[in-house]
Amino acid sequence: MKLSIVTILLMTVGLVGCDDKKQQSLAPAASSLAPSTAAPTAKAIKFRIDPKGTTSIDMPAPKEHIKASTDGAAGTLDIDVTNLANSRGEIKMDLSTLTTKTFGNDDDKKQTLHARCWLEVADCEDGKMDEAMKTANKYAVYAIRSVDNLSATDLSKVAATKDGDAEVRSVTATTHGELLIHGHKVEREAEVEVQFRYAPGATVDKPSSVVIRAKKPLRVQLAEHDVKPRDNFGKIAKGAFSLLGTKVADSADISLDLRATP
Fold first, then answer.
1. What is residue 125's predicted lDDT score, i.e. its pLDDT?
2. Quick one: CA torsion of 76, 80, 85, 88, rounded to 10 degrees?
3. What is the rounded distance in angstroms from the CA atom of residue 199 to the CA atom of residue 165?
4. Which own/partner pairs from 28-35 qualify as long-range (CB within 8 Å, at least 24 positions apart)?
5. Could you give the angle at the alpha carbon of 63 between the alpha carbons of 62 and 69, nearest 5°?
6. What count of other Cβ atoms lies within 10 Å of the Cβ of residue 52?
């Protein structure tokens, strides 16, 4: 159970997939990602991501099906409502909030503790984690470098629908960028649905909020981000490797549900 917990944490930070049978190589090391903002010529509106944004994590393995979520987020988005392809931004998922929901009882508390320890974002059961290490690993960061496959590029051309008192314009798109987790970065893409919400009668350049959800789960390969079983002091627990791929899946499917406001 301890190993499954750890892997769960690690999986919350990732996004991309490969054949489970193939060994994954370690992704390039990085301490941060370059800023991702819209070009000066874009007519972009700055949005701040709500800190209560969530991710859901699903990690099925032959011997145990781990489920978890995070409930902390950060970051900003530069969105050009007249040419959405110009939009850029950075999404941050707080791995220190990762909580497992595998068992539906008190076993989840211990699994959560182990998971955060193995992700190196919180203290372990019997030992203290280095504070600098916890800070460095706290966020999984996705920097959006380009946007394509848009169902519409200009929101003024998208018909509004009613949702209670709000007017909503929705588009789908594929974002391309870099994902940084546990000190390693990979190039990734994410298919998303974006809902722009407006007060009744508001002009297209005055959205009150934006809701971003994954159209399908993103897959993260743990090995690419050096996510491995660790003991209470962060050292590799080699004796636990046999659990990866059996009791603990070696990849994780992640679904985003984020809200941002101007």
1. 76
2. -20
3. 7
4. 28/184, 28/185, 29/183, 29/184, 29/185, 30/180, 30/183, 30/184, 30/185, 31/136, 31/183, 32/141, 32/180, 33/90, 33/141, 33/143, 33/178, 33/180, 33/185, 34/143, 35/90, 35/143
5. 90
6. 11
Closest Cα partner for 8 from 114, 80, 92? 114
Rounded distance between C-alpha atoms, residue 146 and residue 4, angstroms: 35
Cβ-contact 118, 149 below 8 angstroms: no
Output the six-digit token pair for 180: 């940084």
0.90 cut: is pTM over it?
Answer: no
Q: How many of the other CB atoms lie within 10 Å of CB of 68? A: 26
Which parts of the chain register pLDDT below 70?
1-24, 229-248
**Collapsed DSSP state (helix, strand, coil) of residue 25:** coil
Please report where in the chains the tokens 């941050």 appear, as a residue.
92
- Contact status, residue 165 vs residue 200, Cβ threshold 8 Å: yes
**Beta-carbon count within 10 A of 133 CB:** 13
> What does the DSSP assignment read for 158-221?
SPPEEETTEEEEEEEEEEEEEEEETTEEEEEEEEEEEEEEE-TT--TT--SEEEEEESS-EEEE
pLDDT at residue 232 in the model: 53
The H or E element spanning position 2 is: helix 2-12
Written as one letter, the residue type at 141 is: V
